[in-house]
Design a protein that fits this description.
By secondary structure, the chain is mostly beta strands. It contains no helices and eleven strands. A hairpin with a 6-residue loop joins strand 4 and strand 5. It is globular.
């Protein structure tokens, strides 16, 4: 019964920045590992970043490491994805997901509806 709602997407120029937010409700957010995924036109959904429930461990896809930063504010039941130095290939629908199992299980049970990020050249 967990609901995730993404926001913050939009149209930006290459080299610009966006911060995505994912607000959670209906569950115990602080116990969930959280992840960001994206899906570009004609491609499969791919992993972007993840953050653990409490310790704060993070993991990034090679394609975004050094440019994107995942963070969370448990008091606000929100996870963020700060995206800097955006490239046209970052264009995709970005999804927030919650993993209620152990860190690294890669079993995300809950998903948001997605927010569109478009990076122009």
């Amino acid at each position: 019964q967990v609901r995730l709602v993404e926001s913050g997407g939009g149209l930006v120029q290459a080299g610009g920045s966006l911060r995505l937010s994912c607000a959670a409700s209906g569950g115990t957010f602080s116990t969930y590992h959280m992840g960001w995924f994206r899906q570009a036109p004609g491609k499969e959904r791919e992993f972007v970043a993840a953050i653990s429930s409490s310790v704060g461990s993070t993991y990034y896809a090679d394609s975004v490491r050094g440019r994107f930063t995942i963070s969370r504010d448990n008091a606000k039941n929100t996870v963020y994805l700060q995206m800097n130095s955006l490239k046209p290939e970052d264009t995709a629908v970005y999804y927030c997901a919650a993993e209620p199992r152990r860190w690294g299980s890669n079993q995300y049970d809950y998903w948001g509806q997605g927010t569109q990020v478009t990076v122009s050249s």
